[in-house]
Amino acid sequence: MLHAPEAAPRPGRGLRAGAGLPLKPQYFAAARARPGAAAFYEVHAENYLGTGGPNQRMLEWVRDNHGLSIHGVGLSIGGEAPLDPTHLERIAALLERHPPDEFSEHLAWSSHGGQFLNDLLPLPYDAASLQRVCQHIDQVQTRLRRRILLENPATYVEFAQSTYSEVDFIGEIVKRTGCGLLLDVSNAHVSCSNHGRNTQAYLQALPLAAVRQIHLAGFATEHDSAGAPLLIDTHDRRVAAEVWALYRGLIAQLGPLPTLIEWDADLPGFDALCDEADKVRACLEQYSGQIGQAA
Amino acid sequence: MSPHDAFFAALHQPAAAPPAGLRSWNGSDLGQRFAVYRNNRIVSLTAALADGFPVLQQLVGDACFNALARHYIEAHPPESPALFEYGEALPDFVAASAPMRPYPYLADIARLEWMRTRAWHAADALPLTAAQFQAWLQTPETLPERRLRMHPSLQILDSDYACFDIWHAHQQAEPPQGFNTEGPQQVLVLRRADTVEVTLIDPGVAALIHALARGATLGDALQAASGHAPGFEPAAALATLIRSQCCCGAPPSPEPH
């Protein structure tokens, strides 16, 4: 009897629980040399919108051997203006060419007045804002023909006009659009510290049943003019101990989840990333007997 | 003015107060908190430019590059989130920058680095093999009428300066003690086997490739190159062309079958 060869991950299947690493051109060779380093790789969509070349081949390699998460940083879902149709089409074409196991974006805006600002900026949490964000997510999910994941933000200021708490705002979005949640535990910790909130209470008030992926990253600690910690979401160092503690608590509660180590500045060698991935694996294995090297 | 408008406007005015309507939980200074966003925009866009123009950055130094980037970001803010496409106008911006005027080769170095980024992301195409060229040589009478399609990543920098030498001297871990800047030099940028190569080529070869890329027949291109570069040797130039693998695609055959 003939057996079909094992198929590559199919679109919409979702990532399997395991440790994920960010893939940048600096890591292409090291990642190929260590196929067990990560269960999945995540790339920033905007860096892979070229026509050909090594980036495109690397995505093919990931899809043949690993889970693939494509993470958008430029759709500006929290923007005031309509979504940029050209950019949405380019993202759609990328996802058709390299169908990922997940596509995620941010609860933030990054473009305004025809300019891309290359930062994830905060928005007021009120009824008008909620309606606009939900419209944008509907438009993205319709065009991409998939459920997307939305990531909770790291913020430094709040808006006086907000009438929703962040968790209620996110809860409403998930309810109205059916999108999943990419829970960035570091962002939760950064934002709660920066706004005098209890991180545990914040996490427990999120729609945790919608969490499909977790992000962990390093942050810098400064202080505001009142002497309180002001944490900056820098993605330039190892994950902090307090974030690991929150993460372990969440995995104990929710079970194993696909978990990405983020590192976007002051890039370390691939070994340092693998160390962080090992910590993720150790935690996931503690709560499941089934997580293998390349699960 | 919407919250987004106010936020956007304040991002672009380093000395201005933060936009109205913001709050902090403990009443701490909003100016300091808002400065994180101002800083993120400039620093991250500067880093994006530094990724694309590392030799330019080495040549002018970090402080000068940061100032150049800040001015460039204000004059030419990115429109698209695809930042690998950001920086196209930087070479001309460098050329027009007064502090850069004593170093006229800097703009060409920026052009060379922009070509490298474009080559990295350019479309894929299989190079024409030496065997395929050999087959053409079996019917030499058809050669002059052949046309060649260049690899999509191929670009040539015709510089008045020694841009290949300058670029090459800055590929080591340690900055060079000194380097030649006197040109002219023709530099070929081409992606081969997933590596973007930077090669010094003869003026004649450059002229030949320019003509072929414009769609000229091989015969016309060789003639143009001979006129352009005294002492041009067609056979040697063709050998270079084959070796470099810069041609690709099946050119139209004079005898379709």
Walk me through the structure.
The complex is a heterodimer of chains A (295) and B (257). Helix content of chain A is 37%, strand content 20%. Chain A has 295 residues and is α/β, with parallel strands linked by helices. Chain A is globular, with a radius of gyration of 19 Å. In chain B, the strands form 2 sheets. Chain B has a 3-stranded antiparallel beta sheet with strand order 3-4-5, with helices on both faces. A two-stranded antiparallel sheet of chain B has the order 2-6. In chain B, a hairpin with a 2-residue loop joins strand 4 and strand 5. Chain B is built from 11 helices and 6 strands. In chain B, helix 2 (30-52) crosses helix 4, helix 3 (54-60) packs antiparallel against helix 6 and helix 9 (203-213) packs antiparallel against helix 10 (218-228). Chains A and B meet through helix 2, helix 3, strand 5, strand 6 and strand 8 of A and helix 1, strand 1, helix 2 and helix 6 of B.
Name the descriptors:
heterodimer, A: 295 residues, TIM Barrel, two-stranded antiparallel ribbon, globular, disordered N terminus, B: 257 residues, alpha+beta, three-stranded antiparallel sheet, 48% helix
